[in-house]
């Protein structure tokens, strides 16, 4: 049986405990940049590349990904625009499973999560190995819809939503940090909602 873990931070989110500057909204608003891609199973692969321990890239079909052991988590989601939604139940494969299947080189510190149309989000390696981080295929017991990231969405609930790309297609191991799509456009590189910092000028090392 897959485990069900509640990873909501703050403990009393449903009673008003939200990160600084966030407001609670109902439902699950659709938000993304660009068009919704069409899923073509025969062409789809999930790749792990970059600084792998073996020096070689790895790839899995969708059927191979969903055959991996899965878990269910309950988590809240926080958008850098200021909205939060609570109590999402996600099912999928822990992102840390990729590190077991395709180990990173010893000097890897960050990853770049790549999605359809070249969207990217940089993450610390510790963000990927967190037990809250999931490659989700289902939401509230139903397969993800295309608008919400089907067939595979990276869920990183302890960070702002732009760190969890819809339509995940690859993980690049990196030996030094490099900014992703929104990070290059002025959003905070770490994206921790509990600090209330959303923009790059708020970073500790900002000029």
Note the main attributes of this structure.
207 residues, mainly beta, 7-stranded mixed beta sheet, 5-stranded mixed beta sheet, 12 strands
Task: Describe what this molecule looks like in 3D.
The protein has 207 residues and is mostly beta strands. The chain contains three helices and twelve strands. The chain has helices at 62-66, 96-101, 125-129, and strands at residues 4-6, 23-24, 46-50, 58-60, 71-78, 83-94, 110-115, 120-124, 134-139, 142-143, 153-155, 168-174. Strand 3 (46-50) and strand 4 (58-60) form a beta hairpin. It is globular, with a radius of gyration of 16 Å.
Concise account of the structure shown:
This protein is mainly beta and 207 residues long.
